[in-house]
Design a protein that fits this description.
Elements: H1 2-12, H2 20-26, E1 31-35, E2 38-41, E3 46-49, H3 52-55, H4 64-76, H5 89-101, E4 106-112, H6 115-132, E5 140-144, H7 155-158, H8 162-165, E6 175-178, H9 192-210, E7 215-220, H10 236-246, E8 250-254, H11 268-271, E9 278-281, E10 293-298, H12 299-308, H13 325-338, H14 343-359, E11 367-373, E12 376-381, H15 397-407, E13 410-411, E14 413-415, E15 419-422, H16 430-449, H17 451-456
Parallel strand pairs: 3-13, 5-6, 5-7, 7-8, 8-9
Antiparallel strand pairs: 1-2, 2-3, 4-10, 9-10, 11-12, 12-15, 14-15
Bound molecules: 4'-deoxy-4'-aminopyridoxal-5'-phosphate.
């Protein structure tokens, strides 16, 4: 049965973000059930999921109240469009709840199916905004190198990871990138104030190069996720927000990963006291029990678009599943679990133990850097700690990590051949956190048993 599925998968299912031939050679690992922080696969192995699926199952697996909320909604009415002037109760209530929780006056919500289409919605809304408010030249958008803003046709150009651009004719000439802070490998040094000043200057220089009158927006993650969990110095996000305001460009906080308690507060922006002009959400919004994302915009931006747009024109943007009632029901209940259910508080409680455990790995010969904020972290591997030498590609660290992750029964994400990313569910106990750290340390120890890696280290 399992062999059949693996064969069928190879024959018919195209997986995201793999080499297609590489996937055929490796095959699929099918997960079949989950409870709390643990998942079980089709072969019967149970692993602790230190990555919450794809940094999305923030509430953990088996949350019966989310399942019940979805089931109730599907039974009552499985679909009620948000198109035109129709609507449904869960979407309206969720929009209100998000407005209560979001920073500042981000009080208007457009629902999407995930993060990529939230980013694409933002790109369209920003263009529309400047067109209807009489500044049609403002079209260029800036994001950070190593940033991730999804996979949509336009958003993938703001993403700055090589394999999202190569052979995709991306980015477009209206999309630009500036260096992101990466203290461990930052040629500008380790001083936080200097790193912040360099980022602000890079933005100013880029805007000057394009011409301020042509620049629409800056897209930024409070902590860059897919680029390697690059935790910026405290105050960096605020400095970028303020610089964007000074330069008369919009500031979008991409909170697809950092939202919903991932870095401590409900939203990553709050860490630095930032109120963005726009905010994108997904993943933890429903704890991935249903697909859903959202774009939130400020009251001012909403009003400018509403008043600037011809009153007889229906603004042509929407998805069949915008505000899907079952997804909205899942979102509302997930948020109830984060707040009244105490998950956000639990995440904050276990975060110091997580940070302490990971930092403790710095004594390992292969660990060069540990970056952590809240329950979001990366461990960067090196073969020479003093020289901060990246492991040579020949060592195939990612492949070994994938194998060992399975053997040691701990799921994390192997990035770009020298990093492991962590994003455990907020429901973890301190024992779960200890299990993650212990198992990951044994992954590292086993890595050292690989002859070529031991020789290189
Ligand atoms: N923005 C960020 C910051 C992300 O991390 C992701 C996904 N990892 C996206 C956007 C895209 O979200 P989705 O995969 O739901 O389309």
């Amino acid at each position: 049965m399992l062999d059949d599925l693996v064969a069928l998968d190879k024959r018919h299912l195209i997986h995201p973000v793999v080499s297609w031939r590489g996937h055929e050679a490796r095959g699929v690992r099918i997960l079949t059930s989950g409870k709390g922080a643990y998942v079980t696969d089709a072969a019967g192995a149970t692993l602790i999921d230190a990555f919450s699926g794809l940094w999305c199952v923030n509430a953990g697996y088996g949350q019966a109240s989310i399942v019940d909320a979805v089931q109730r909604q599907l039974t009552e009415i499985p679909y009620a469009t948000n198109y035109f002037h129709y609507g449904n109760e869960p979407a309206i209530r969720l929009a209100k709840r998000l407005s209560e929780l979001a920073p500042g006056n981000l009080n208007r919500v457009f629902f999407t199916l995930g993060g990529s289409d939230a980013i694409d919605t933002a790109i369209r809304v920003i263009r529309y905004y400047f067109n209807v408010t009489g500044r049609p030249k403002k079209k260029h958008m800036i994001a950070f190198q190593r940033g991730f803003h999804g996979s949509s046709s336009l958003g993938s150009g703001l993403t700055a990871l090589k394999n999202f651009h190569d052979d995709f004719d991306s980015p477009t000439p209206l999309q630009h990138h500036i260096a992101s802070p990466y203290p461990y490998r930052n040629p500008v040094g380790q001083d936080p104030e200097h790193i912040i000043a360099v980022s602000v200057q890079a933005l100013k220089d880029k805007v000057a190069e394009i011409g301020g009158e042509n620049v629409a927006a800056l897209f930024a993650e409070p902590v860059q996720g897919s680029g390697g969990v690059l935790v910026p110095p405290d105050g960096w996000f605020k400095a970028m927000r303020d610089a964007a305001r000074d330069l008369d460009i919009l500031f979008l906080a991409d909170e697809v990963i950092t939202g919903f308690g991932r870095t401590g507060p409900m939203f990553g922006s709050e860490y630095d006291g930032v109120v963005p002009d726009l905010m994108t959400l997904a993943k933890g919004l429903t704890s991935a029990y249903q697909p859903m994302g959202a774009l939130m915009v400020s009251d001012e931006m909403y009003a400018a678009i509403a008043d600037g747009s011809p009153s007889d024109r229906a603004i042509g943007h929407g998805f069949t599943y915008s505000g899907h009632p079952a997804s909205a029901a899942a979102g509302f209940e997930a948020i109830r679990l984060y707040t009244e259910g105490g998950l956000l508080a639990n995440g904050q409680k276990i975060a110091p133990r997580f940070a302490q455990g990971l930092t403790g790995l710095l004594d390992h010969p292969l660990v060069g850097d540990v970056r952590v904020r809240g329950l979001l972290a990366a461990v960067e591997l090196v073969t020479d700690k003093k020289e901060r030498t990246k492991p040579h590609a020949n060592l195939q660290i990612s492949q070994h990590l994938a194998r060992l992750s399975y053997e040691k029964r701990v799921i994390f994400r192997a990035f770009s051949d020298d990093m492991a990313g962590f994003a455990p569910p907020l429901c973890c106990s301190e024992e779960d956190i200890d299990t993650i750290i212990r198992r990951f340390r044994s992954v590292l120890d086993e890595l050292l048993e690989v002859r070529e890696i031991r020789m290189a280290a």
